[in-house]
Amino acid sequence: MFILAEMTNVTRIPPGLFNLKLNDAIAGELNKKLANKVVLDVGLCIALFDIIELQESYILPGDGASHTRVKFRFIVFRPFMEEILIGKIRSCSQVGVHVTMGFFEDILIPPTALQHPSRFDENEQAWVWEYDMGDDNKHDLFMDAGASIRFRVTAEMFNETCPAGPQVQESQESSENKTPYALMGSINEDGLGLLSWWDNQT
Question: Which CATH number covers residue 192?
């Protein structure tokens, strides 16, 4: 679920932080810049793990801050494909079940990846697994918001969300609805789905 990503960065330290040790000042600036941000094709950055290498610091003309090229490792949320995770249902809609990990909410389980057969209940705004108990007897198992759910990661999507120039304003407006990093999941196999479905079995 979490990986260590090695990165490099030229970190600017303002004069107000010169009283700190260089490592501490750089660590604070790196966390401020990257924590809770998505780096394209890397994942969701969580926190600085360690600093591997510091090169010489320099000051640019007209800027009283110091600039230091740093090689470091950052803790990143990026599950591997087919990894099984546990989250909570944030909401349900026609497009599927929306899952949150608490710190990451862009997870979708589409209808085709739910237990079969399932249907969307408009009144309850929840997906329902029509569990076959045999002898033509079915029991509705609701996927309610807030319930803990176990799912398998099946795909990831990265989207470039940097601002574009005025000549592509229309495409820029459409990209505002994109999330920089999203996951797709699946629960259509035994042992996956709501924890209560399996934990209550004897």
Answer: 2.40.50.140
